[in-house]
Design a protein that fits this description.
Elements (H helix, E strand, L loop, with lengths): L11 H28 L8 H8 L8 H10 L19 H30 L13 H4 L8 H16 L13 H13 L5 H12 L5 H5 L7 H12 L4 H6 L2 H13 L4 H4 L6 H22 L2 H7 L21 H22 L5 H10 L4 H11 L7 H11 L5 H9 L3 H12 L6 H12 L16 H38 L1
Helix pairs in contact: 1-3, 1-4, 1-6, 2-3, 6-7, 7-8, 14-16, 14-17, 16-19, 17-18, 19-20
């Protein structure tokens, strides 16, 4: 089951493993829906059933059963008030007792039939799930073909991919925009009728953990009155102070997980059939590192140097400034970096498989020093030098000057690292003078500059393609810049107003 957004064809063995994993997941989800139906007063308020089938997804910031109940109740209309039927005044005690028992048995049988019928519309076969996470743009159109259990599973995977985009998985504060965005994406993937509404009310419940358990976690079946009180509680705005305090709902989720999993051996394994997923996750981590590095550069230096290595060590022959950085070009250099890291580890530890090398990189936060230390615990190092390993890495990353890059990678300066580490420690941007100081250090090294092969004159057709791509880039850059400037202006006005 890939979490990278692709739906590639699986081999027979991996397809079978995928089917087993999905069946187990769906079995858990079906159990949550059965538990939720047992607690909802569906016989007194039958309108809860269509609400559950439409929007009662099992994801949110509470436990799955509570999420189903809350997402079912959070609706567009208040639930009708119910009143207890009055007993006849003049009736013998025995007859009244017999009538009561008969009505109770009939109500229980009716409730059982209602719940069984609802479960038949909830249950999902693993064979109906083709792609995880689902393609968001198709989710709304495919709603009629998917049960709420299937949509819940798709929403759960989408939430995890969005929330834990950069590994290792660290919980964000509930007040973080990441949490709300992940909830919205999950709701869209699950074809929820009101994604923004679900996200807002999930946050509202999360900010009232001292009150919500009284409504959702009591034993036994909820009364119609409790459902009404929960509905009105969902309408209240989130308590901002509580949201900003801590990621308590996710901490509670961790506690629930620890109750279900004995030890952590199952979390340490990463099956071979999931190697593609492992690569996606590792690329997400490397992407986060690139964003962190980009944030260190001053704006002017970033505009001129984002597309180079170090311009003094490997000088560019064309000056090129940009206002935005293309995610495609960034993605390419990230993939090349991963290929280089894997080649370096393979050169140092010949017996280390690529799969295990990626596991080491993922667990070590892509820190090469930590990975080498981990690998040395169980692997024998080759007799190859570090310089040869760095050269192999440069070649695998398709660097234009692998020999120079190898020497460059081996060159370390305590002064340079002090500058970078200082900026990282206090979360500040490097000064332009500091960038120039780092550049001057490398300018002392003598790297051979590869001669540039003259480019023949482009054909008219090729010229049109280049011109079109340039115009398209500039138009996209202008559009993004205007959107960012508008968002910053709106944020500044809201901050002043508050």
């Amino acid at each position: 089951m890939s979490t990278g957004g692709s739906c590639s064809t699986s081999t027979p063995s991996s397809a079978a493993d995928r089917s087993v994993a999905l069946s187990e997941l769906l079995e858990h989800i079906h159990g949550y829906y059965k538990a939720a139906l047992d607690r909802l007063p569906v016989e007194e308020t039958p309108t809860l059933i269509p609400r559950l089938l439409d929007g009662g997804v099992c994801f949110g910031l509470l436990d799955p059963v509570s999420n189903i109940i809350a997402n079912t109740v959070r609706s567009f209309e208040p639930l009708p008030e119910t009143h207890a039927a009055e007993e006849p005044a003049a009736e013998e005690e025995g007859e009244r007792s017999r009538r009561g028992a008969k009505r109770k048995a009939a109500a229980e049988e009716e409730a059982r039939m209602i719940r069984d019928e609802a479960m038949s519309e909830i249950a999902t076969d693993a064979g109906s799930i083709y792609c995880l996470p689902p393609i968001l743009r198709d989710a709304r159109m495919r709603k009629k073909k998917r049960t709420v259990a299937q949509r819940s599973l798709e929403g759960l995977v989408t939430f995890l991919v969005c929330y834990f985009r950069h590994l290792p998985c660290r919980s964000c504060p509930i007040s973080s925009p990441t949490t709300e965005i992940a909830l919205r994406c999950a709701a869209i993937a699950a074809s929820h009728p009101a994604p923004a509404n679900l996200a807002a009310r999930s946050l509202s419940l999360a900010s009232r953990l001292d009150q919500v358990p009284q409504l959702l976690t009591i034993d036994g079946r909820l009364s119609p009155d409790a459902i009404n009180r929960l509905y009105h509680k969902l309408l209240e705005a989130p308590v901002v102070e509580q949201l900003a305090a801590s990621p308590k709902p996710l901490q509670l989720a961790t506690v629930r997980l620890n109750r279900c999993i004995k030890g952590n051996s199952s979390l340490e394994r990463f099956p071979l059939e999931f190697t593609k997923t492992l690569r996606y996750l590792l690329l997400h981590k490397i992407h986060a590192l690139y964003l962190k590095a980009i944030a260190l550069l001053p704006r002017d230096a970033l505009r001129r140097r984002h597309h180079r290595v170090y311009d003094t060590a490997f000088p560019s022959h064309v000056q090129f400034e940009v206002d935005v950085i293309s995610t495609k070009s960034l993605g390419r250099v990230e993939c090349r970096s991963l290929n280089g890291l894997l080649a370096l580890l393979g050169n140092l530890f010949p017996a280390l498989s690529e799969h295990d090398a990626m596991v080491h990189l993922l667990r070590s936060d892509a820190s090469l020093q930590d990975v080498v230390f981990r690998a040395m615990q169980n692997q024998d190092m080759s007799s190859a030098s570090y310089e040869a390993a760095y050269k192999a890495a440069a070649e695998a990353a398709r660097h234009p000057q692998p020999d120079a890059q190898a020497e460059f990678s081996m060159s370390t300066s305590p002064k340079m690292f002090h500058i970078v580490e200082s900026a990282l420690r206090i979360n500040r941007t490097l000064k332009l003078s500091e960038v120039e100081l780092i550049t001057s250090y490398f300018s002392q090294k003598s790297y051979p500059v590869k001669s540039v092969t003259s480019v023949p004159k482009l054909t008219p057709h090729a010229t049109k393609i280049v011109s079109y791509n340039k115009r398209n880039f500039l138009a996209t850059q202008d559009f993004i810049r205007r959107k960012v400037e508008a968002a910053l202006q709106k944020y500044a006005k809201e901050k002043v107003a508050s």
